[in-house]
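Deviation from plan, reported transparently: pyridoxal-5'-phosphate complex.
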Amino acid sequence: MIFLDNASTTKIKPEAISEIERSHALFYNPSALSGKSLEVRKEIDAAKQKICKALGVDYNNNLIITGSATEADNLAIFGSAKKTGDQFVFGAGEHQAVFASANELKLRGFNVVFAPLNKFGEVDLDKLKEILLKPTAFVSIMHVSNETGAINDISKISRLVKSFWPNAIFHSDGVQAFGKIPTNVLKLGVDLYSISGHKVGAPKGIGALYVKNISKLKPIIYGGGQEFGLRSGTENTEYILAFSKVASNFEIEKSYNHAKKLSNIVRAYFEGKDGIKINSSTAASPYILSLSFEGVRGETLVHVLEEKGVVVGTGSACSSKKTTNRTLEAIGLCQKQIEGAIRISFSNENGEEEVLKACEIIEEGYRTLLEKLR
Ligand code: PLP
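Because the crystal trials were delayed, the predicted structure below was used instead.
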């Protein structure tokens, strides 16, 4: 099977598995007082230091471990939502973890505004500037789009936000960026940055939120006061250690170049072919490619391809009325192109030959499906 849906999740890495196995012996509660517990606490702090290093900072009480990036996004947003009034700004193409939270904020009486995207899938900076003319409490713009791979220039955007509203809190969802492109949070100028384990070969069910200043955030989970009171609940030692192991082995440049090679193979294969459109801009992250196959439904194509041994993602979600995709709509694709969208996403595990083979299978699957529908 050729797995090209790595933006949805990745295969757990052997070093993560062995770290989980090693940590089984470290079962003591890190908050208890025994010497063994203290050892576990030290292991967790060392692990957090490694994750922070991958974020370009020293661990200094500035990383909150969560059960997922969805939770990290929720903590960033609801933990910053103190008073209604000044606006909360979100990119129009944010992942559901942010988008649904933004909609919930709106229901709770907050002033929520969405910043439109340009045709490349990035937040439109001119439109964002217009939005920022009004008093702003919080801005959340994702680093890399999970749909198109579009990269937002987060350091530029954070400077822009702070130039308008120095006290505004700036959050970025870095899930599709972490381990793939440089994610130095100091250079990015973020106050809050969400990451996820299972997108980079660590287990599912672990994420983290980098928090520049923990005193500005309030918890969304209450209890025993772990994680500086911001995320109560006994720490998941096994997964924290596994995540940190993976994060300390990142080879950003090498992996990026590999993904770029794979992405170029797909681009070169499909470029200019009848009925097929490459939706991702060439400036996007090479790990994610959105393509549209006109005349078929993306989800049907995905099933056809799975039968032929190729796993890709859909680029759209079906509601009862029509097939929608906020991001693809926002970048101006027509309904047919949205309906026929699929998402190809790579990891280090993929090789050049299998990607080329997958392209042939995808094209053949598409043409056959199209024929059947005629
Ligand atoms: N944000 C982005 C951009 C994502 O791609 C994902 C996962 O699909 C998430 C957040 C949610 O991550 P998790 O599965 O860890 O909750």
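The radius of gyration is 21 Å. We consider this an acceptable substitute for the interim report.
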